[in-house]
Amino acid sequence: MSIHSAQKRISIPGLRHMKGVAKIVMLTAYTKPMAQLIDEHCDVLLVGDSLAMVVYGMDSTLGVSLDTMIAHTQAVMRGSKHSCVLLDMPFGSYQESKEQAYRNCARALAESGAQGLKLEGGAELVETVEYLVARGIPIMPHIGLMPQRVHEMGGFKAQGREEDAATKWIGIAKNFEAAGAFGILIEGTVEPVARAVTEAIKIPTIGIGASPACDGQVLVTEDILGLFPDFTPKFAKRFTDVGLAVSDAAAAYAKEVRTNEFPRPEHCFGVRK
Ligand code: KIV
Q: What domains are there in the chain, each with its CATH number?
């Protein structure tokens, strides 16, 4: 059976098998309409905690709650039928202990319908990943630039510039692999380090501001659409400018309302022809 069966969602094992076979296409989705529009073109839809900034206008991803992440993931599940859907566990929901992580991750998986979860972290997270995977929770660790650590990093800064970075991150990635992670997301990391990590492990890597050598790529959908006017990161390519189309449409609507051109009889009920 093909990995891309028309009727069934791509599964977690299906994603693992894509390494070396086909590039994994991942985009973020936060709402049902967006999921409906992009689902057929993707392998994975990530309900990223970036929605804190993109949808709710927060300064960082730190303020979003697990309830909010679950509600948006439920919406994305309703709007998709093909892609594997992953939920991003929010700051503070898994770092305290592996038991806390299990409680919140089990709830997230059960209530949202997502197939897997993404957790930011390095060496300190390996034991938690092993604990969760052993209890049936598929996990994709997120390494490199970790937006939940924006204050510790002093901003959203590319990682992996230290001399021993490749050795360090290969070691951590191998430990995640041994712990049962089904893939690793690498964000904002210098290219040779992201490439070396990808080549060193048998599970797929998904890059964002990382390397073309990664087994897949992810971007924030609003960035590729030009729908997040506040900031476009260096690594995000704008494939179209929906933002401009939205602004033009609002201007045209405003003009027609003010000049009584809209609504017309065909937009009204009970008007004789
Ligand atoms: O929250 C998010 O959207 C992410 C991606 C940027 C990878 O973690």
A: 12-240 (3.20.20.60), 242-273 (no CATH)
Q: Which residue has the tokens 């380090």?
A: 193
Rounded-to-integer distance, Cα 177 and Cα 51, Å: 28
Q: Of 187, 256, 261, 266, which residue is the catalytic one? A: 187
- Report the C-alpha dihedral over residues 167, 137, 117, 212, rounded to 10 degrees: 40
If you take atom 2 of ligand 1, which residue's CA is the nearest one? 48
The pTM score is: 0.95
Q: Which atom of ligand 1 is closest in space to residue 218's alpha carbon? A: 7
103-107, 176-180, 183-187, 232-236: which range is least confident on average?
Answer: 232-236
Q: Is-catalytic flag, 187?
A: yes
CB 167 within 8 A of CB 146: no
Cβ contacts of residue 164 below 8 Å, gap of 6+? none
Tokens of 153: 């990093």
Report the separation in Å between the CA atom of 214 and the middle of ligand 1, taken as the mean of its atom positions.
16
Six-digit token string for 25:
């296409």
Measured in Å, residue 28 CA sits from the centre of ligand 1 at 7
